[in-house]
Amino acid sequence: MKIYRAILLTTAVLLFLATLAALSLPNGFFTFLRIFVCGVAIYVALQERDSIVALIGLLMLVILFNPLEPIQLPQPTWRIIDLATAAAFIRLAFKPSRTQNQQQF
Predict the structure, then answer these.
(1) 70 touches 44 (CB < 8 A)
(2) Which one, 53, 67, 83, 105, has least CB within 10 Å?
(3) ∠ at Cα 58 (98, 89), nearest 5°?
(4) pLDDT value at residue 68
(5) At what angle do helices 75-93 and 52-64 cross, to 10 degrees?
(6) How many domains does one find in the chain?
(7) Measured between alpha carbons, how far is 27 from 36 in angstroms, rounded to an integer?
(8) What transmembrane ranges does the database entry give (predicted)?
(9) Residue 22, SS3 per DSSP
């Protein structure tokens, strides 16, 4: 479970970096970000098979961050999407696992 959390937190940090307006990041960073977020969303979707809401949200992220057919949106819109995605990944990283919930009862 530590690797799962590390992946989610790393993705959140990259998304926060993408929202910093003061940085002039190269275009390659955003291509890498799309590939990384899309891959992590697929991985997390496989881990979160029990929640249909999480699956739908993650599928939307896979489509939105698809590196093969990029969706063109204004930069302020991407900042909001990046922050919301980072917050969702942080929430998933700190969500109690099913085994922890079962042990409490």
Answers:
(1) no
(2) 105
(3) 65
(4) 92
(5) 140
(6) 1
(7) 14
(8) 31-46, 53-71, 77-94
(9) coil
